[in-house]
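Q: Joint fold for the lines below.
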Amino acid sequence: MDLMKYVRAQWDRSGAVAAVVFGLVALFLGWLGSSDTGYVAAQMPYIVSGGLLGLFLLGVGAVLWLSADLRDEWRQLRVLGEELRLDNELQARSSNLSASATGGGTG
Amino acid sequence: MATTELAAQVPRIGSNATRRSAPPSARVPEYRFMREDSPWRRAHGLVTSVIVAIGCALAVVSWVGLSGENTFREQSGWLVLAVFAAVISAIGMSVWLLIGFREVRCGEREIVAEVRRRRADREQARRALAGPLVDREALVTTDQMTRFHWADCRLVRAKAVTVVTRDQAAERNLQECGVCRP
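A: Joint structure:
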């Protein structure tokens, strides 16, 4: 499948993957920065910017992926609702037909 | 009856005749998942965005404040603020997910309730056809009939029937129904 077409159709899942990748990169960069110095006060900005930002992006990725799953379930509910509606119409038709066919019979 | 005449009596889908002929409980209500594309409303997105934005703003503030301090003792307050910001952002995203799960669950419950309602309607209709006190697999007839039927035969629908055994039917010279073939 064409990658761009997939990205457009599955924008939320693509966004989730991108967020997770960027989150991992942020974690790695934070670790690189903090490992350069043994001074705790100098490590703290890297922990906040790299570590917390990385965790935040990982969370965003998870939320986007779960949101995509929920949207899929929502569409499935719509399909079920349409099936119920069709079933309803078919039932109304068949009851009208049987009422017409059997009306007035004596057996 | 000719096929064309029969077809002419079938109401068109969505016409008023269909709506009038269907029992009220058999209609499919207009559920939210039939109308809207997403489980989330605009307000849900707005609330979530505001909470996450507050968390992000606090995180930036804490990072700037923390970078300006030289000792860990001075940074610890900002570090707590950063953790607080992360918690707020997590709460915002959790709210988003919880709303989504809740809406989908509501939709599932509505579908299940609709299916159960239909099953109850059909069961009720079947009982009404067979008569309240007559077993579905009993043989029945009426005083005017020359045949005997299963209790759920369409030809005895809504008629005052009496239960008969095969021996009684033979004594009364009743013939088998050609429709339900008991």
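Q: Anything notable?
A: Chain A has a mean pLDDT of 87. Residues 40-102 of chain A form the longest helix (63 residues).
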